[in-house]
Amino acid sequence: MGKKQHNSDKLLQEELKKSGEIPDHIAIIMDGNGRWAKRRGLPRAAGHKRGVDTVRDIVEACAEIGVKYLTLYTFSTENWNRPKDEVSTLMRLLLSSLKARLSELDKNDIKLTSIGDLSSLPVEVQKQLRTDIEKTRNNKRMTLNLALSYSGRWELIKA
Ligand code: IPE
Ligand code: MG
User: Fold this and answer.
1) Cα of 68 from ligand 1 centre, angstroms
2) Which are the catalytic amino acids?
3) Could you give the CA distance from residue 142 to residue 109 in angstroms, rounded to a whole number?
4) What span, in angstroms and rounded, lies between the C-alpha atoms of 49 and 119?
5) Is there an atom of ligand 1 within 6 Å of 57 CB?
6) What is the mean pLDDT of the chain?
7) Closest CA to 90 of 58, 125, 115, 62
8) What are the C-alpha distances in Å from 111 to residues 37, 69, 71, 99?
9) CA dist., res. 83 & res. 147, Å (int)
10) Ligand nearest to the CA of 34
11) Which of 97, 78, 86, 9 is nearest to 47 (CA)?
12) Engineering a disulfide at 105: which of 1, 32, 110, 148 sits with its beta carbon 3.0 to 4.6 angstroms away?
């Protein structure tokens, strides 16, 4: 992100904070990574990678303006039907992000939680997810909730 862009984001964040109209809960469905990459003549994986960076900015900004609860719809049950190598790229990215961002989440007082059919995820991902959740469980500023292997059906059953 360029410096100019960053400054105007900060101004906007300040304005939002002052307006007192910050929602407690924001939910985001992640989409468009592939199209982002295609427009630039890049492989889909490049779009997913960029998506991770965008998520980082979003998480930081939400915590900054006082959102209490951010749900990211990250990987749906339908996403399992994608080509095998795309699914493994996504799982590898998820694993590396969970590892790489743990200390940052913790430092920013963000608590990680997760919803979805977690048992269908690769074991290494499940393990890292548990590690991150355990390490951040007492954090108070914002809860970052990752929906993984989720579906409308899954949510209905849980409810
Ligand atoms: C979101 O981007 C990533 C996931 C759903 C895992 P997409 O991969 O759906 O990107 P588009 O929709 O093909 O552009
Ligand atoms: Mg899509």
Assistant:
1) 26
2) 31, 79
3) 7
4) 24
5) no
6) 93
7) 125
8) 31, 9, 12, 15
9) 21
10) 1
11) 86
12) 110
Cβ 33 under 6 angstroms from ligand 1: yes
Atom of ligand 1 nearest to the CA of 44: 8
Residue 1 banded pLDDT, cuts 50, 70, 90: very low
Contacts (Cβ under 8 Å, ≥6 apart) of 67:
22, 23, 24, 25, 26, 142
In short, whether 149's Cβ falls inside 6 Å of ligand 1 is: no
DSSP state of 78: G
How far apart are alpha carbons 58 and 55 in whole angstroms?
Answer: 5
Residue 137 has pLDDT above 50, yes or no: yes
- Angstrom distance (rounded) from CA 51 to CA 69: 20
Angle, helices 44-65 vs 3-19, to 10°: value is 40
pLDDT band for position 7 (cuts 50, 70, 90): confident
Q: Is the CB of 85 under 6 A from ligand 1?
A: no
Structure tokens belonging to residue 146:
């990752």
